[in-house]
Amino acid sequence: MELEQKLTKVYEIEHSLQTLMTLCGQQDGIPDLNETPFRVIKAFLEYTVGYRENPTEHLEKTFDISQNDPIIVKDIEFYSMCEHHFAPFFGVAHVSYIPDKKVTGLSKIARVVEGYARRFQVQERLTNQIADAVQSVLKPKGVIVAIEAKHLCVSSRGVKKEEAKTFTVVSHGVYSDNPQLRSEFMMAIK
Prior knowledge:
Layout: H1 3-23, H2 36-47, E1 62-63, E2 71-82, E3 88-98, E4 103-104, H3 106-117, E5 120-121, H4 123-138, E6 142-151, H5 152-155, E7 166-173, H6 174-177, H7 179-189
Parallel strand pairs: 2-5
Antiparallel strand pairs: 1-4, 2-3, 3-6, 6-7
């Protein structure tokens, strides 16, 4: 898209955001809010930076290390945006895999989480995308991903349950077949 077309879209969105602010009851003419629509656009571009990358590419850097036991990266903080309400949801992801022949850098797991979280999302899809990425690129004996998150669309609107959290789990390979491995993972992330 040409620069002129992009700028036209930005101006249209700014106008729409100003209309939304007025609809919500915001009075015109408050100087401190003149730049709010543009700041909102910039924020949304940051919230959705994951669309402008392929998170699986982070996993392509591997090392030939003999490892038969699980590798667990836990408490990976993330922030995402609910695709239904454009309300934030945030929490932690826990990722474990049992390598077959190769491992990746620990930070690469966190980058995959970040890459998929920084999109309009639902937690269930996010959990699946992370597990599927690790499975497809690293081809481990098994992978399991658990996410615990707080959704502002649940706590600050609608049902307004402030303490509610959502927990999702996806597993592949030996983590799907072996209840003891799943149990060990769940104990490790507590």
